[in-house]
Amino acid sequence: MTGVDVLSQFMSGLTTAMIYFLIAAGLTLILGVLKIMNFAQGGIYMLGAYTTYSFVKLFGGTDAGFWLTLLIAPTVVAAFFCLLEVFLLRWFYEKPALYILLMTYGILIVTYDLARMLWGWIILTAPMPPMFQQPLEIFGLVFPLYNAFLIVMGFFVFSLIWFIIHKTKLGKTMRAAADDREMTAALGINVPWVFTGVFGLGAWIAAIGGALVAPMAGMAADMGVEAGIIAFVVVVIAGLGSLPGALLASFLVGEVQAFGILILPEFAIAFTYLVMVVVLIIRPWGLFGKPVVIK
Amino acid sequence: MPQPGEKRKGRTTLWVLILIILAFLTLLPVWAPKMWLHMAIQVLIVALFAMSLNMILGRAGLPSFGHAAFYAVGGYTLALFVVRLKAPLILGLAAAPLAAALLAVVIGYFSVRLSGIHFAILTMGFSQIVWAIAHKWYGLTGGDDGITGIPIPAAIQGAKAYYYVVLAVLCACLALIRIIQGSAFGQTIVAIRENRDRVTFSGLKVWHHQLLNFVIAGFFAGIAGSLLAIFNRAVFPEFGYWTTSASVVLMCILGGVGVFIGPLVGAAIITLLEHYISLYTFYWQLILGLLIILFVLFMPGGISGFFKDRFGSGTAPHR
Predict the structure, then answer these.
(1) What does the angle CA B308 – CA B311 – CA B317 come to, to the nearest 5 degrees?
(2) A86 in contact with chain B, both atoms CB, cutoff 8 A
(3) B283: which chain A residues are within 8 Å (Cβ-Cβ)?
C-alpha cells in the first residue's frame, strides 16, 4: 500500500466521519440539553436529503440554487420537527424515559413511509452542483472537490454550534436549562421554548448532514436507519452530550471503517461496534462523558 | 377498599377467564385453517419474548432497548448446535436459554447500575454488537444470509404439533414468571423500582437483585428465540436488530406493562396488525407509527391498563 492509497483511504474516512458527525452532533445536543434519546434523528437526516433533492431540482441544478437549497432545505425540515416537538414531545420530558423513546421511534417510522409516499420507492440522487464537478488534486491524490467541501462544512458547522453554545447568551441559556430546569425557569426563562429551540437546532444540523449527502450518494427512505444507528454509536463512544467528543468519535468511527475495509472487508461495520465495546467496558460513560453510575 | 368476598369473587372470575382462554387456545387447531395456525404460533412466541422483556421493563422499571440480543442469541445458539455441531434438537433447546442468560450476565453487569436513558442506550449498544457479529461473521453465523435449514424431528414438523409445543412452553414459562413475580424476590424488584433508596437502606443489595432479574429475563427471551428459530427453520441477523428491540418494547407498552398479561395482549395486537395491514397497503409502517404516537399520547397505561383502570379493581402502576 503506497502513501497515496493511505491518504485516499484517510480522506474517504474523513468524508464519512463528517456525515456521521452532523447526525451525531444534533443527537448529542438534544441528549445533553433535553435528556432524551431522539430515535428520529436518522429520519431527520433522510428528510434533509430528500428535501434537498426537491429544492435543487426546483432551482434547476445551478450553483446559486444549490447554495440557496443548503439554506432552505434544512430549515424547512427543522421547522417541521419543531412543530412535532411542540405537539408531541414536550409533554413527556418529566415522564419515564420510555415514553419519549417510543414516541421518537414512532416518528422515525412515520418519516420512512412519508418519504416513500412523497418521493417514491426508487433511489434518487440530487444533481452535483456545477462548481464542484471537477476533482481536486492534493499530493498526487485525485479527490472529489465536493468531498473536500463536505469536510470543510463539517468543521464549519462544528465551530458554529460550539460558538453558539459557549459564546452567546442563547447558548448560556441552553446550558443553564440543561443543568437545572427548575432554577432556569425560576429566573424567568421560558424553558419549554428553549427546549424547542435546541430540538430544532439538533434537527437542523442533522438535516444539513442529509442535504450535504444528497448530491453524493443515492438516497432511499431507509438510509436513516443505518446512519442513525452509527450516529448513536458515535454518541455513546463520545459520551452523552459532548460535542467535541462527538467530533473525535466520528473521526474514530469513520477512519476505523475506512481502514477496516482494507484489512478485513467483512468486518468493517463490526469494527465500529468493537470500538464501542472497548469504550463501554473501559469507560461506560464514554470518552468525554461524566460517570453516571448510581451507587 | 374491596371486601374480601368481592376479591374472592374477582379471583374466581379470573380463573374462569383463564380457563376459557386456555380451552380456546387448545381447541384452536381443531377448526382454524393452517394460515391462522402459523399466525398463532408466531403470536405465542412473540408473546413469550414480550413477557420476558416486561420483567425488566415493567417490573424493574428499566427501559431496555436491547432485548433482541437475547432473542437472537437464543435462536443462533440453537441453530449453531443443531446445524453446525449436528447436535440433537433437544440439546440446542437446552443450550439456547443458557447462552442467552450468560450474555445477560455480561450485559447486565454493565447496565443494571444505570437507569433511564443511560440504561436504554447501553443495552441498545450491546445488542447492536450482537447484531453486528451475527451480520458480519460469515464463517460462524452465515452473515446476512443467516443460518438456514435447521433440521426438525418429524414429530413436530406439522403446524398443529408445533403449535402445541409452543403453547405448552409458553404456559410453563408464564407460570414460572408468575411464580417469580409473586415471590419475595419479585416483590423486591418492584420495591426497587418504586423506591431504590429505601430498599438499599433495608440492607438489600439492589444491583444483585436487578442483575438476577435481568438474567432471568434474558433466559426466557432465549427460549422465545429458539422457538422462533425452529418455527422459521432458520435464523437471521434481524432477530437481533434494534428495531426488533423497539417493537417488543412497543408491544409491552401497548398491552400495558402494569398488567401481567399486558405484553401478551400487545404482542398479539402488533403481530396481527403487522400482518393484516401489510396485506392492504405498502405503508403499514406509517400506520404503525401513527398508532404508537396516539397510544403514547392517550393511553400511556396500555390497553390492559386502560381497561383495568376502568373496570378492574386496584390501579395499574403506570410505568
Answers:
(1) 25
(2) no
(3) 113, 116-117
pTM (predicted TM-score): 0.83
Residue B240: which of B112, B117, B124 has the closest Cα? B124
Task: Round the average pLDDT of chain A to a whole number and report it.
Answer: 85
**B240 near A CB under 8 A:** no
| CA distance linking residue B222 with residue B224, whole number of Å | 5
B120 vs A92, A97, A225: nearest CB: A97
Residue of A nearest to B62 (CA): A98
Residues of chain B with Cβ-Cβ distance to A292 below 8 Å are 114, 118
User: Does A290 have pLDDT greater than 90?
Assistant: no
Cβ of B125 and A92 within 8 Å? no
Please check whether residue B226 is in contact with residue B97, taking contact to mean a CB–CB distance below 8 angstroms. Answer: yes
Closest Cβ opposite residue B63 in set A101, A106, A292:
A101
Query: What does the H/E/C string look like for B75-87?
Result: HHHHHHHHHHCCC
| Chain A contact set for B319 (CB, 8 A) | 96, 98
Q: Say yes or no to pLDDT of A1 above 70.
A: no
CB atoms within 10 A of CB A217: 13
Q: What cell numbers appear for B210 in the block? A: 436487578
Identify whether the C-beta of residue B248 lies closer than 8 Å to the C-beta of residue B54.
Answer: no
Q: Do A233 and B136 touch (CB under 8 A)?
A: no
B102: confidence class by pLDDT, cuts 50, 70, 90: very high
Question: Cα dist. A42→A6, A24, A37, A78, A279 in Å?
Answer: 30, 9, 12, 13, 23
Structure confidence at residue B302 as a pLDDT band (50, 70, 90): low
pLDDT tens, position by position, B240-291? 888 889 889 888 888 888 888 888 888 998 888 888 888 888 788 888 888 8
Query: What is the rounded CA–CA span in Å between residue B70 and residue B91?
Result: 18
CB contact under 8 A, A109 and B286: yes
CA dist., res. B92 & res. B82, Å (int): 6
Residues of A in contact with B123 (CB under 8 A): none
Task: Give the residue from A251, A248, A230 showing the smallest Cα distance to A239.
Answer: A248
Q: Measured between CA atoms, how close is A23 to chain B, in angstroms?
A: 17
Query: What are B235's strand-pairing partners?
Result: B147
Interchain pair A277, B196: CB under 8 A: no
Q: How far apart are CA B24 and CA B27, in angstroms?
A: 5
DSSP-derived secondary structure letter, B214: H
Q: What is residue B305's predicted lDDT score, i.e. its pLDDT?
A: 65
